[in-house]
Structure formats: C-alpha cells, structure tokens
Amino acid sequence: MVIFLVILAIASFIYNQVLLNKIMQQERASVELWTKAFQHNVDPIYFEVSEKLNQVVSVLNNYPEIPDSLTRLILEAESEKATIDFVNREIIQPDDLFEIPVIVVDESDFVIYARFIDEEADIQQLIKNFGAVHEPITFTISAGDRSFNQMVYYGESEMIQYLRFFPYVQFGILALLLGVGYVTYKSITRSEQSNLWVGMTKEAAHQLGTPLSSMYGWIQLLKDNSQQNEETLSIVYEIENDVSRLKGIAERFNKIGSQPELKRTHLEPIIDEVISYMERRLPQLGKRIEVRKFVASNVKASINTELFQWAIENLIKNSMDAIRDSESTQYVSISAEIEGNQLVIDIEDSGTGIDRKYIKEIFKPGFSTKKRGWGLGLSLTRRIIEEYHNGKVFVYSSEPNRGTVIRIILPT
After folding, report:
1. 338: phi > 0 → left, psi -120 to 50 → alpha, else beta; which?
2. Total tally of structural domains belonging to the chain
3. What is the pTM of this model?
4. Where are the alpha helices (DSSP H) in 226-264?
5. Under DSSP, is residue 386 helix (H, G, I), strand (E, B) or coil?
6. Do 152 and 166 lie in a common domain?
7. What are the C-alpha distances in Å from 271 to residues 88, 232, 238, 285, 296?
8. Residues 149 and 38 in one domain
9. Are 397 and 349 in contact (CB under 8 A)?
10. pLDDT of 227-247, one tens digit each?
C-alpha cells in the first residue's frame, strides 16, 4: 500500500506539473495577445490619423462646391474608430477575459496601466514579484521620430495559484490515507497478537487442570499413608502448597483475555504474601537479598487480587534477577502510598540497572536481556496494570550499577 501511494503521489505530482506548465504557456500567450491589443490601442499613429482627417474636413469646408455629404462621411468614419473601439471593448476592458494581474510601466518604471490589482497593494513590490516569476513582455510605441519601450509585468491567475497548492493537498490526503492504513494494520496486528496471547494462556490453563486434579488425589493418598510419619507429612504439606500455587497460576492464565472483576482491597496482605513467597526462593538464587516493605495498613485500591499479585511477583522477581552475586547484602524494596487521587507503588532494587537504550523496550513482548528469558513477564505485567486495572507502569529511574525503580500508578 505504501509503494502504491508513493507511486500515485509521484504520478500525480508529475501530471500536475505538466498541466501547470501548459496553462502557464497559455496564460503567457494570452498576455502577449493582450499586450499587442494594448499597444494597438495606445499607438499615437491612430490619433495622428484622426487629427489629419479633422484637418482635411476643415480644408474641405472652405470649398463650397464640395458636397457636405463627403465631409459628413469622413467625420462619421473618424468618430467611430471601429478597430480601436473593438480592441478596447473586447480585449482590454472586459473583466471576464484574461483574468491575470497586469501592470504596464514605461522606461522609468512609471505605472501607465494596471489591471486586476488591489488598490491597496504595493505596486512596486508587485512589479518585483511578477518579474521574478515571469519575464516581462516588452513592446514599442512610436511617436514621430522617437520610440518608447514599455513593459508588461504579469502575475498568476487564481487557477495557477490553486494548481500550485494542489499537490500539497493531495500529499496531505495521501498521508492521511497512509496513516489510517498504518493504524488499521497495527490494530489488526495487535488484535492478532492479543488473540494468540489469550489463546496460549487459556490453553496452558486447560492443560494444567488435568494433572493438577490428579496431583491433589495423590497428595491426599500420601496424607492418609503418612499419618504416623511427621517428616513425610510435612513434606506432603509443602507439596500441597506448591500444587495449590500451580492451581492459582492456572487460574491467572484463565483470566487473561476476559475482563476481571475489581474489588477494593487492602494491599498490605497481598504484598506480604508475595514477599513471603519470594523470600522462600532466595536460597535457590544463592544471593544475599533483603526484601523491604513500606506499605501502610490502610492503603486500599480497586484490584483483581490474583492478577495484581502476579504483576507484583513479576516485578520483584525481575528485580531479584537484576542483582548480581555480591558479598554485601543487596536489597529489593516495595513501597505504596496515596498521592492525591492516585496510588503510587515503587519497586526498587540495588541491581545492575537498565541500559538507557533498553528502557523503552523492556515492556515489549519478546524483549529480554537474559540468556534464557522469554521476554513475557514485564509485558504481562504491563497488560495487567494498564489494560485490566487502568493504571500505568514504567521505569521511574535507573542508573548503571546503582539500581532501578519501577513505578506503578493506580486510580484510587
């Protein structure tokens, strides 16, 4: 479509220029004709002829034997001036012919005649402008033994002016069509990606359902057979907790693509549960990380508990992964406070930071700086916060080797 629109724009521009040049040639020919008519009309020879005819009539009046009809015929012929009147009436004066601004000047640039010129316009400036656009037309007036050069400066008719701006109008329309096409294409692509994403998550939730049901059965069987062995029973309970968590993850996947129900909920218990779960992962990471929390007990927001908890887990996990092994204790902190009519949540870490060129990329699907990363965690977090909770999530600040702050803003 882009190639087609570009070709159409180029072809239209070329055609417009060809048409413009032809009309300009025709207008110059019209002005040249008008100049000849003007020259014919102001040529002194016609006034000299008229004067001589009047002198002849005066001489004839001194001879009574010459019939009066002859002198009357001469006077009638002289008074009609058919040719001059025709040129003046049909070419020079009519307003519906050759509607092109014209200025006639003599050799000293004195304005002799002006046509289709605004009375308040700067004539001298118009002469300069007309001369820059079109070469003036020169004609000669003879008076006895002397001759005088006069020049006709002319501008452009309204048609030419419209045609000059027409390509820009066309380009604007084509650009609008291109923009509409691009937005439509992006919308279709985004819709396809969204449908694919939703389909994958629901399929994952469906596939997890069957083995989870089976695992609950096996766990119950282990409980019944391990009543006398406390160590085994404690292991079974831990397995049951992990299976329950898998069930919760399956439910989260199942909610992707449908509009979740939002309830006004205290955030502190949800964040405590996330921190407790993430702290149990720290020994597996082999890192010395302190998880800090600064959340008031009265902080509440309209959220979907499962999805919001998932988003916070992703952010905390991402912060933990950004911390390198170090002998000193590193930290990940989460804080929440009300600012006006907004809830502001900051997840801060003392990790490696984010390279400036990646800050706008980290929330895009498939982007990851990890060797084994799929680039879906932060993308999913953004979808949960922005599409399902009408909030915002972004990199608030980041410095190399100093850490990063991810900020979430939710309406209260």
Report:
1. beta
2. 3
3. 0.49
4. 230-255
5. helix
6. no
7. 95, 31, 21, 20, 11
8. yes
9. no
10. 778 788 888 888 888 888 788
